Here is the input.
Amino acid sequence: METPGSQSSLHRANLERVVRAVRLAGSLTQAEIARTTGLSAATVSNIVRELKDGGTVEVTPTSAGGRRARSVSLSGDAGIVIGVDFGHTHLRVAVGNLAHQVLAEEAEPLDVDASAAQGFDRAEELVSRLIAATGVNRSKVAGVGLGVPGPIDVESGTLGSTAILPGWTGAKPAEELRERLGVPVHADNDANLGALGELVWGAGKGVRDLAYIKVASGVGAGLVIDGKIYRGPGGTAGEIGHITLDESGPVCRCGNRGCLETFAAARYVLPLLQPSHGPDLTMEGVVRLARDGDPGCRRVIADVGRHIGSGVANLCNLLNPSRVVLGGDLAEAGELVLGPIRESVGRYAIPSAARQLSVLPGALGGRAEVLGALALALSEMGDSTLLDGSLSMAAPAFT
Here is the structure.
């Protein structure tokens, strides 16, 4: 038995520290591992050699700063994680390994609002199909990350706003999917997962403080503070869509008037253009028409950008992030929307906060949330599981 402070317990702690650093980053050189963990170069070298001999990590030649180096990543067959993203109109699932490589990914249309049971049925089927397509044994599933378009109560795991998903009233998404799949499931809202996806793989890589703004059926923000998602004690941090812009404005689904969402979300914006562009117009269509020069669509997108910029200015004044990443269909409008956002930030934010801020489109497009779900599963899994080899010895996780 290991005793606290003993040489064996210290060695075990160092092993877990190295495995965690590599797991969260995807791959690191040994010098980067030393900087991340605070361990000496000699200790890292010995631990990496031990982990490589045990089959936990793979080491490949690379270069860093013009010098030869060795890149360390978790073994490709150490395990897999699954990302599940429920949008309002789609379901997207991805399977990735612990080296941050996506092995399979698929999306399909789905009316998520209609029925939680139907959504979970489809998710279960798609997960099974994709695992089979990878050829990886199901016993290798280490965990699942799950995204839903609404706030999740941190304590109860219940979806917090039934106004967003009326067919999901009382649903506990993580618990439901965990019962179906038989593996750990960690759930979060789509904006948080978008932020996590862009932080790990996209436009937020290397940044410690950012806000990911998703504009779709609603408007939400995923907040990253000091490299970590900030959820707040109740899980509702980032509800930027309910900042009040006009106390006499339209009534919002939250019950207040003039929320940012009533000036920017698709359900409020599209009716402005449908009389002239037809009832089947979508935000994707608005963006496409604006890029092609349609004056009405350009005006609406510019107005939306200025309204979003007002909300971003409030974030700047409160949290002073270094980067804002815009996601959702609107991000495809590029400077047509980013320029007006920056204009409002320059007008309403504290000058020093505005100067430090960069506003960028998301790099991952519609994949941001599902890749964030993979990152969530990777961040939540335990390192002792990898060191003990219990994934490979486990019974099949689900059938």
Notes: Residues 392-399 have pLDDT under 50 and may be disordered.
